[in-house]
Amino acid sequence: MSIFVYGIFGLLLSAFSPGSGPDKYEPSWESLGQHEAAPEWFRDAKFGIYFHWGVYSVPAFGSEWYPRWMHFEGDPIYEHHLATYGHPSEFGYHDFVPMFKAENFNADEWADLFAKAGARFAGPVAEHHDGFAMWDSKATPWNAKQMGPQRDITGELAEAIRERDLKFITTFHHAKQLQRHDSIPVDSNDVGYRFSHYPFFKGMPPSSDDEKLKYLYGNIPESQWLEEVWLAKLKEVVDQYQPDIMWFDYVLDKIPDTIRQEYCAYYFNEAEKWKKDVVIVRKQDDLPLEFSVDDLEKSRKNRIGLEPWMTDETISKGSWCYTEDLEIKESKDVLHVLIDIVSKNGVLLLNISPKADGTIPDIQQRVLLDIGDWLDKYGEAIYGTRPWYTFGEGPTKEPEGHFNFHRDFLKIVYSSDDVRYTKKDKRIYATVLGWPGAGKEIQLKAFAAENLPEPMNVQEVTMLGSETGLDWHQTESGLTILTPSVAPDEMAVVFKIRLE
């Protein structure tokens, strides 16, 4: 087994105490930079759940980008739409809205599932690129309270999730909803409208002059849209649901600095009134990291992060929203991703894909419940932990964490030769990503004298979930442990190592 050792210095910077920010945040990067990006509760949480669920779930084909690609001739989604519903000029995306009924949605059942899965926070994609708000909104008529389900989906979820003592997250992808006509490319090899979700094609609904349709398709003057749509929607959600985390998708950098600063200051100042430590999560370089958490979509770090970070990953191997042919990952593979992320100072935000009628498919529920069962038994190796001086050892290596390499991450399969470490006080948790087999000798090279940043004497080694005493010994070459005859778990096993 090989080992990846990284320095511990600077890893665990002390957090600001509650209320250590200014009396009032001003809309400037300097003032906002005084906000603590990752409060202790977030560092402790490790695992959250969200879901791509909305009008795009109705066609259940292709992906959550259906509302965009249904307009591009030659795209499989366009061809499917043409054959199933007719030409998009005659049957537009807005015609799906009455079909999104969510008739079987039950916020309490969903919240129960998230709690059983071991999530410490949960919540909806409040709005995707498509312009349909999943809450009771006055900023747009295209919202779940007035149309489709005719229910305040976000409000019901906020209440149910908090009743189970979970934190509440809302995610926003609507920075791309504005039709930016100047993003039409000169290069004919580009499909066009790179920074706009809806293309401005004559004769199609997104180019309509209808005042109501404009609010769905983002065909609004930018100055008006920035204040009355993008910012107004965020302020509504802040005021009505007091989210603990607000997460943003890409293209956020297309929002002017002054507008982004106004939002951030508003959220932080309202949170001060609530006496809550809140979190903003961003992708790429769309907000300064002095006060926001970095997110890596479908990828992760191959080293310990100096500051807490997040990965948003989906339970499927394909679309983020439900589709008829959606392939779901195995429970152990999702669990191993969580364990790997936590060992590197990260937090996992796991996406699931409910059906348009508001049901969560059994196969997805099974994965969540399997993870929850494992966390219920061995969660002390996850929750409230911090990175050790090294994240782990073993043959499996990850590329640099970035969405450009997400297909490479999808191919990664861990084995019982891979070990991930976490720390809590004088306890080190060595989690083996699989069952090595009975009576097998495992050597943890992280404990080799030449690798340790300082001398460490092991006092006791136990295996969580097993009452069998372990044979172990520490030498200059590392810590050697003999596995018991019975596996407490097949997905992953945890050695609890107590230091003097």
Distance between the termini: 26 Å
Number of E-state strands: 18
Low-confidence stretches: 1-18
Biggest sheet: strands, sense, closure?
A: 8 strands, parallel, barrel
Name of the CATH architecture of the largest domain = Alpha-Beta Barrel
Decide which structural class fits the backbone: alpha/beta
CATH first level of the largest domain: Alpha Beta
Q: What Rg do the Cα atoms give? A: 24 Å
Give, in spatial order, the strands making up the sheet with the most strands.
Answer: 2-3-5-6-7-8-9-10
Q: How many helical stretches?
A: 12
CATH fold-level topology of the largest domain? TIM Barrel
Shape: globular
What order do the helices and strands follow? EHHEHHHEEHEHHEHEEEHEHEHEEEEEEE
Provide the β-strand percentage band: 15-25%
Q: Helix coverage percent of residues?
A: 25-40%
Q: Provide the number of structural domains.
A: 2
The CATH homologous superfamily of the largest domain: Glycosidases
State mean pLDDT (0 to 100 scale): 93
Task: Supply the key terms.
500 residues, 2 domains, eight-stranded parallel beta barrel, six-stranded antiparallel beta sheet, 12 helices, 18 strands, disordered N terminus
